[in-house]
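hey so u asked for the seq, here:
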Amino acid sequence: MLYPIFDYLDGVLDIPGAGVFKYISFRAGMAAVLSLIITITFGHKIIAWIRNKQIGETVRDLGLEGQTQKKGTPTMGGLMIIAAILIPTLLFGDLDNIYIILLLVTTVWLGGIGFLDDYIKVFRKNKEGLAGRFKIIGQIGIGVIVGATLYFHEDVVIREFQNPVSIEEGVIETPAYQDVKVAKTTIPFVKNNELNYETILGFMGEAMTPVLYIFVVIFIITAVSNGANITDGIDGLAAGTSAIIGLTIAIFAYLSGNAIFSQYLNIMYIPGSGELVIFASAFIGACIGFLWYNAYPAQVFMGDTGSLMLGGVIAVLALTLRKELLIPIMCGIFVIENLSVVLQVSYFKYTKKKYGEGRRIFLMSPLHHHYQKKNIPEAKIVTRFWIVGILLAVITLATLKLR
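ran it, structure tokens below
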């Protein structure tokens, strides 16, 4: 909302120094600061309101140490995160940018699905919450919107230059270029690191390519969204991990939206993607600010309102930056947590069918509960997961030069 004002002050009134307000770095910094202010300053008031409304966590007895102490802890704190993302983005982002619009829609859409799930659990006293099939339908719905937009929208392009962009005596010289409408993505750890979906999906005919691409988008959004939801099992784990991933994505967004840096690092230059730095900065600020109250021992839980949204937003950010094939590394914590559940359930069913008695790989799944069962303090588990998340982020960023 403020961006047109900044543009008017600089372009029309020509006020000296007004141009700084349009810089991505300035607006990203302001978005991060405002996001932190919203969560930290107003967080305790929101928590008090949630507590007064008796919106408390219903805890199932899983036999975990300290678990019963969390009963009644305010939940649905994901509303704090959503507000801290939306408000700074609306204020400092360019609302004409298709990528910003997609991320705003994703935030509200998946936050709404999570809110319904939490509402049913808390107010309807139904521990199962929203039926799984309705969650999946909701995730498929946003997947179709995102996939169709990325494939068909005219503003979603990559820019190919005939010659490298150069700087001569402080002036950026931009060579002839062509904006190409193509469904390409990035393959990590290979020299020719671009993959054209139309090449690998075109075997079923040109008309089926967008359908298959949208199917891929749906799978990615659903998987990452559910992965974040599963990871949100102990204090601070999902929020801290999401902040680390968000910082990684913010770096990619800045580089992908800069013609010079993108060519130097041999990554795709995506016009307009620089605006995602503002959204990613608000996202990081919201996660860190939420940690102020969610770190062990948690004063509030994000609930599905927050966790489903965080994972879905991360997936869409990766898709818009054409870095979705980096998700298994970048979101490795989510992947491991998700995989631990799949392996546990599959192995239990297999051994029950074969031996008549179900056996388990882990003491309990998801993986963080396995370590809780081994009597490792909750804060130590979270810290170690964060360390792994940071290492995975470093590996992800290292792919920029491993060509």
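The chain has a mean pLDDT of 87. Residues 341 and 366 are 5 Å apart (CA to CA).
lmk if thats what u needed
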